[in-house]
Amino acid sequence: MSEFPFTEQQYTSYKPLLFSLAYRMLGSVTDAEDIVHEAFLSLKDTDTISNLKSYLCRTTTNRCIDRLRSAQSKRELYVGPWLPEPYVSEEGAAPDPFQAFAQKESLSTAYLLLLQQLSWVERVVFLLREGLQYEYDEIAEIVGKSSVNCRQIFHRAKQSVGSLPLEGDASSSASGEQSRQMAELLGRFVQSLQTGNLNGLLDVLSQDAIVYSDGGGKVTAAVRPITGADRVVRFFEGLLKKASPGFSFRFAPVNGEPGLLTYEYGKPASVLSFRVEEDRIADIYIVLNPDKLTHIQVKEGPRAPNGG
Fold first, then answer.
1. 181 and 156 in one domain?
2. Within this chain, do residues 189 and 219 fall inside the same structural domain, yes or no?
3. Residue 184: pLDDT above 60?
């Protein structure tokens, strides 16, 4: 059997789509990259494909389903809050094809967590229907359900998480304004921490702000969410007091939105992303699990003033 011929242009064109699909299903950068690689490798085992995009999306989805089934028991035993692996890009770097796709369809930490609240069947049905406009008959064949059942599953999932934020959901200018607002809040948040300005911190936090820390049982982290602006402020003040002389941080886009990377002696130590609501920071997501940071290639920035 001869392998199916595909061009570099096709690879470049479809890879961001497949990665986005797998990443939203799994919440793992490394697993998504592996699955996309496997999907393209599978072309070597076939010589006739009528629709390359459909074939690759189907192959990616099936491999994600296998991964989700095997990971279900591990997720149930996970220590503390589970957060998706962050997708971090270099500030000011050349445009990343996936980053453009991420901005188009929104891969924010908050939205990924909404998707993760769905069962794997609900997530697959929702993403194939809402994101890729698959027919219910096609989805039914992939997940092993009837088309009528898939229609019901989709509507139930959509009620849970709402519509997938596609580019028609908001103009690019509105999206840009939201990013600028978040970047401004983040800058004020960091400056207030560095100067010990308690009132400044409270000014940028929602009264019921929440911090979610994901250490996965591998490093010290809060095993329960920290709720309330006052407690959040004390939490970060405590972290700064314990910071080592090798502590530094830099701003960087995380899942297409303004975020923070922290380092210990040049090695990534955590990634922070944020959710803003009514001009204040409502949720802070901190990924500390070292297994979820191994893929990060963004280098350490300038040493943070007053950072230890």
1. no
2. yes
3. yes
Secondary structure (DSSP) of 156-192? HHHHHH-----GGGS-HHHHHHHHHHHHHHHHHHHHH
CB 298 within 8 A of CB 261: yes
Residue 155: domain span: 8-86+119-161
How many helices (H) does the chain have, and how many strands (E)? Answer: 11, 6
Structure tokens at 261: 């990377």
| One domain for residues 81 and 139 | yes
As given in the structure block, the two tokens for residue 73 are 């028991």
Q: Greater confidence, 227 or 74?
A: 227
Confidence at residue 158, expressed as pLDDT on a 0 to 100 scale: 92
Note the pLDDT tens digit of each residue in 38-69: 999 888 877 678 888 888 998 999 999 999 88
Q: Per the domain annotation, does 166 fall within a domain?
A: no
Q: Of 124, 123, 119, 139, which Cα lies nearest the Cα of 54?
A: 139
pLDDT top residue among 70 and 93: 70
> What are the beta bridge partners of residue 153?
none
Residue 40 lies in a domain: yes
CA distances 6 to 39, 70, 289, Å, are 13, 31, 38
In a domain, 169, yes or no: no
Instruction: Tell me the C-alpha distance between 231 and 222, whole Å.
Output: 12
Please give the distance of CA 54 from its chain centroid, rounded to a whole number.
24
CATH number for position 59: 1.20.140.160
| Total number of domains constituting the chain | 2
The whole-model pTM stands at 0.87
Of the CA atoms within 13 Å of residue 288, those in its CB half-sphere come to 20
**Collapsed DSSP state (helix, strand, coil) of residue 287:** strand
105 with 47: CB under 8 angstroms?
no
| Residue that the structure tokens 């009620």 belong to | 159
